[in-house]
Amino acid sequence: MLTNIFCLKISKFDSCKLSRMNFEQLYSPNPNFSNRYISPEKLFSYLQTNLSDYVQEIGRSYLDKPIYQLSIGTGTINVLAWSQMHGNESNASHAMLDLLETLDKAPEMKEDLFSKIRFDFIFMLNPDGSERWTRLNAADIDLNRDFHNESSTEIKFLKKAVASKKYDYALNLHEQRTIFTTDGIHPATLSFLAPSENEERTITDNRKKCMAVIGKIYDHLKELIPDQIGRYSDEFYPTSTGDNFIKAGMPTILFEGGHFVDDYTRTGTRKYYTVALYYALKAITELNSDTEGWEKYLEIPENQETHYDIIYRNVKLNTDHECILDVAVQYREIIEEGKDEISFVPFVMEVGDVKKRKGWLEIDCTGKKFVAATKYPKLDAPAEFTIED
After folding, report:
1. At what angle do helices 205-224 and 267-287 cross, to 10 degrees?
2. Are 335 and 387 in contact (CB under 8 A)?
3. What is the pLDDT of residue 21?
4. Is the pTM of the predicted complex or chain greater than 0.90?
5. With 90 as the cut, is the pLDDT of residue 16 above it?
6. Is residue 104 within 8 Å of 272, Cβ to Cβ?
């Protein structure tokens, strides 16, 4: 009888089909946050209006903005996650919003997940940097390199949250640049890491717990976005958050959202980041600190640094002698006052022989004219030139 009533209440989905659908088939982005840029004030308002029963303020930023933690679930497995430790990495905030949006349309799936875990999610740990769309906080401190010094206000609240209870797992959620691929061809749309606990990169039991979860995520995603899942470098960083948390005994999994071809606003990345978040939580419920299948992690190809956004090939400069070279360009992301979405400004990164790198866009300038105010493109400056026939 309950199943029949449930079927009648669902207008968008046939509940019988819904029960057989995977999370990725149900995926629904939160319509209130369609841009890659998330205004902190808009997020705060949304959380207070729609999720007030689940959120609490756990601290204030350098510029006195609130830092909110959402807590959901009644299970015995404790999981902590945090987004936008780097302010210009919004995909994880989107992923949490989209996760809740999607699960609201699949109440049975939602109940199954959150009856097994208690999930604490810190939204926008660095709201000052998020507002300015910068990696650093308002005091120009990288929170992810401030574990020991505690020079930033915000890192103290994260460490206090970690100390508040015994967490079985933590998810350290980030994004990476468009320069990374899995094989020199396909973008590293998502990369994962079980961080090292020491310079020797010893595979400890805690690392195996992380690897087992990542292996299960990989099993799902490799069919959805083949050749686009990477493994982040496990070099040990003595001052970083994830490395120190796992060193202290808390299994900590790094997520890195990356490039999706022809999608600089990362809507595709956003979708699969959300899918990965769901399957990470599901894997955590299934494994419950077991390490079964951890070896699968080692099958994931390691990130390679192979690409620029644009490479202009065979550019003939306006010099007294013949000078033909390549010009590599990378976008910088900025938020301009009064705009609600980021802008992409091309900067010159390399000039000369750039054959060791590829471009997501490559332009052959053979027989074309280089038009600029200067004879040479200036490194680390806006790409203020045109190529004309």
Report:
1. 130
2. no
3. 80
4. yes
5. no
6. no
